[in-house]
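Q: For a teaching session next week I want to show students how multiple molecules come together into a single three-dimensional assembly. I've collected the sequence lines for a complex. Could you give me the predicted structure tokens for the whole thing so I can convert them for display?
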Amino acid sequence: MEELLDILKELHPEVDFETEEHLVDNAILDSFDIVSLIASIHEEFDVTIDAGRILPENFNSAKALYALIRKLENED
Amino acid sequence: MRNHLLSDLYRVVTEKPDKIAYSDGKNSLTFRDVYLQSQSIGSYLHEKGIYKRPIVIFMKKSPQEIAAFFGVVAGGCFYVPVDEEMPQSRIQMILDNVQTPLIICDETTEKLAAGFQVKDCEIKPYDRLIGTGINETALKEIYDRAIDTDPVYIVFTSGSTGIPKGVVACHRSVCDYVEQLSEILGFDEDTVFGNQAPLYFDACLKEIYPTLKFGATTYLIPRQCFSIPVSLVDFLNAHKINTICWVVSALTMVSAFGTFQTVKPEFLRTIAFGSEVFPIKQFRLWREAVPGASFTNLYGPTECTGMCCYYRVDREFDQEDVIPIGRPFPNREILLLSEDGREAAYGEQGEICVRGTALTLGYYNDPQRTAAAFVQNPLQKAYPELIYRTGDIGRYNQNGELCFVSRRDYQIKHMGHRIELGEIEVNVNAVSGVKLSACVYDSEKGRILLYYVGDLTEKDLILDLKNRLPRYMLPNKTVRLENMPFTANGKIDRVALKTL
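A: Of course. Below is the structure for the complete assembly, covering every listed component.
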């Protein structure tokens, strides 16, 4: 979770990712952020997030995103 | 010959009054709605004695915003779109430049609009203006008196001094652009556009005016769809969208994550892209997914009214190839000029310059910067003739197609937006606590990197910058340094920064 928060904070140092739960709905993350985020997650966690998983519910909070990463890690 | 941008509206409303002209998927306006609402706005301007003035439109992106544009033109004025996505300081700079007598807003922007400093300016919500009775006689007279070199809009583009430049376009250049683009991309009355571009740039001309010309339909795709690729393709299919003109980054967002394995666009037949280099790998994924569609690369600066060169992809490209920008639209010429003002020899690099009706009128209230970019054609000095110097460096390949090579300065293309890195630096340097800053662009990863020396944290700097810069100009990575690297002759060492 720490690694993920670091990635997110590098992208948006001004956002409190521990509490924010509407990252996509409130357009805090835009399409460019999501592209860089997926690339960084791939580097850090070695998991690939494909389009079928790029859904608001998976990206609205750091917690949800981390849960997705864990799930994908376990699938490997 | 069409001399007035709205002649198509006045024709199409008699042919297809009940067809949907513009929609965001939920909220739609028919051609009749667009006509009536724009005529009311034009009549309001006339009633107030406002004529040949810039009118600021500050509304959320919607079919109504487009009708407001037409209303301003119907009243013999020209529209200046601003948007919530712009930070307040930038909107204030635009207002200072144009000195508008009227800001047209909506319920989402009314409060914000009231917060700006503008002298002798009225702020009116769109919904109230469209209640104005239509004065047909007055509008007819305004229409008849218009000439095709009268301005129709001002859009603002990034300026390296930190002050954005307002590009003013007239009826003639927009009519010509719509004509040529429609021919090249083959628009017709069955065209269903899926618009991606914001309405405060000239990029949206591609959809809004051909829609009038052919009685076609434009869907304004909700911005959020561009973050969720599957929902974006679902939107295209749900509305049977067959024509898209998008920035490359919007297209690669879809192809890069395997979206096509889940869902494919079913109705697309015309795909135009531009503003950035299309990575061949992503381009191939699109071609495989939509084999029946035509793909056209477009190129052009805002100063020459939308796009002015095109290349329709007609062959295979290798991974390391660059898709050419091709050749000029009809009725404009590209001059490739060497540094000493002669025509570049075949295969030689030169600055891309544009000649013809496509040239806009220049920058609003800014004679100095206008004179620097709109210059006398150096190849003929017998009579006054302006060309526009793009600052882009190009060359012709062995097929005689024009190719983009690089920029002459620190201007970049990021997510389809034209950005002066100097403008970012000016704004960063204005933040108290910042001693020194430099912006570089990592073109491989497509990221704006900001380095600075100063007393404040990255977080505080970004928070402050959000009030100064539009979102797309915010650095993607911000790094505080103890010391800035310098070159031997005392300039900031941008090459060294790129290797950090």
